[in-house]
Specification:
Strand content: 15-25%
Distance between the termini: 61 Å
Order of helices and strands: HEEEEEEEEEEHHEEEEEHEHEEHHHEEHH
CATH topology of the largest domain: Aminopeptidase
Number of strands: 20
Number of domains: 2
CATH class of the largest domain: Alpha Beta
Largest sheet: 6 strands, mixed
Strand order of the largest sheet: 16-13-17-20-18-19
Shape: elongated
CATH superfamily of the largest domain: Zn-dependent exopeptidases
Structural class: alpha+beta
Radius of gyration: 27 Å
Helix content: 25-40%
Number of helices: 10
Length: 448
């Protein structure tokens, strides 16, 4: 009894149990595993709130502890960060993990997925009134006999679908959501290059590599999100969303000259896409490379507005200087066009950087190599000058979640007269696209 008031003084919603119940469930047709307090496996489930985010710690019969943050598709265990691919859910009383990537974790924890109770029993317990009795029949001697249960109905196989973007809805106890198949990518959001067997005049100049190499091109901003603004040589307003779309289309066309490269575009028209949707598309098509195109700009009240120019190629890492942090803030402002609590975020918090460790460890070296190719080729071409070293790092929301090497290219400043002249000129857009395509092919042919 002394522990109860002590738990109240701690100010957390922490719970601890001697046993953990492990059951199958589904969310939007996707198989998940649910962990609750109750008889089942010897273990311990602790749930607490950390910086406003629910965190679950799960222990089994081994010495390892699994740490999960609500809706974060990465887990920590034995000093390693492991990808879950699909987002988990943590509530005040339960932990729900995607089944496909959780079975090996269970084995490591010394836990096992027990056979769930019969569906008919759970329904009877929940829906039958206390006075309800099982139906009976009378045998030939007049004695009451309990009816034999009907044979169990075979359960159809779990459907395999790609979950729609956005947060997973709240889960009600013992509710199995009906399958909701989602077709990804949709025709309106994805545009591919011509079929693989289509020939082009320059394809013979590029060596063929076995298997398709899928490049996802992301034209930044779009629709209600115009991005940065500037004025072209004629004094007309020129928006970042149109510059990125024009270069993205030309990059797609340039890459079509390389046999063995398939291109998928997150958007090929002036439409709005949430930031998380862009990497979701790239993961759905199993992309080998994610390239997000953007334009930079200085605020209208900046004294150096027309002085600063040049391109930069960015990796997903924590920004280390004021310039990169300013660019990070400007690009991440696009999230204000989204709805929900996430639209209030301005940058990645320390917990999110910690959970991104696995993604960064897997893909940073390859992303660095691609960035080096792009910087080298764009510098030689000279349509847009190189800003500083030409490469930087920042916590761009649009790169978070891309399970592949990825870069964000700031192609120039729409606040600079020279850069906007190049970025609004179709011939120079084509030259920029040509050098980026060349860099991608060089990366592909030397991919380790």
């Amino acid at each position: 009894m002394r522990l109860f008031p002590l738990a109240l003084l701690l100010g957390t919603i922490s719970t601890s149990f001697a046993e953990v119940s492990i059951r199958d469930t589904t969310v939007l047709g996707i198989p998940y595993i649910r962990f609750l307090a109750g008889p089942g496996n010897p273990g311990n489930l602790k749930i607490a709130e950390e910086r406003g985010v629910l965190r679950a710690s799960l222990e089994g019969s081994s010495d390892s502890v699994l740490v999960i943050f609500d809706r974060n598709p990465f887990a920590q265990m034995s000093g390693r960060t492991r990808p879950l691919v699909l987002p988990p859910r943590v509530t005040k009383s339960r932990l729900v993990l995607p089944k496909a990537t959780s079975l090996s974790i269970l084995q490591h924890l010394g836990l096992s997925l027990g056979k769930p109770p019969e569906k008919s029993d759970s329904i009877a317990r929940e829906s039958s009134p206390p006075s309800a009795t099982k139906p009976s029949v009378t045998d030939s001697s007049g004695n009451a006999a309990q009816a034999s249960p009907s044979p169990p109905t075979a359960r159809p196989p779990e459907p395999t679908t790609i979950p729609p973007s956005g947060p997973i809805p709240p889960l009600a106890p013992d509710v199995i959501d009906p399958p909701t198949p989602v077709t990804v990518p949709s025709p309106e959001k994805l545009a591919s290059t011509p079929p693989e067997d289509s020939e082009s005049s320059s394809s013979a100049n590029h060596p063929e590599k076995k298997g398709l190499f899928t490049v996802v091109i992301d034209a930044g901003h779009g629709g209600k999100d115009p991005g940065a603004m500037g004025k072209d040589a004629d004094g007309e307003s020129f928006q970042e969303k149109m510059a990125t779309l024009e270069v993205a289309r030309r990059l797609r066309d340039e890459l079509s000259h390389y046999k063995g490269i398939k291109v998928v575009m997150t958007r090929d028209k002036d439409v709005f896409l949430e930031l998380a949707e862009r990497t979701r598309i790239s993961n759905a098509v199993k992309g080998d490379l994610f390239v997000s195109l953007h334009c930079n700009s200085l605020p209208t009240n900046s004294k150096h507005r027309d002085e600063v120019n040049g391109f930069m190629v960015y990796l997903l890492r924590e920004a280390k200087d004021a310039n990169d942090r300013a660019i990070e803030r400007r690009e991440n402002e696009a999230i204000r066009y989204e709805t929900g609590e996430r639209a209030k975020k301005q940058s990645l918090d320390p917990v999110e950087w910690m959970m991104l460790e696995h993604q960064l460890n897997l893909y940073t070296k390859e992303s660095e190599r691609l960035a080096g190719q792009v910087v080298k080729n764009l510098s030689k071409e000279g349509t847009v000058a190189k800003e500083r070293t030409g490469a930087g790092q920042a916590g761009f929301f649009v790169l978070v979640g891309a399970l592949m090497p990825s870069v964000l290219i700031e192609m120039g400043y729409l606040s600079n007269t020279h850069d906007i002249g190049a970025l609004s000129d179709p011939a120079k857009q084509k030259r920029i696209a040509f050098e980026i395509a060349k860099s991608i092919d060089e990366f592909r042919r030397t991919k380790r």
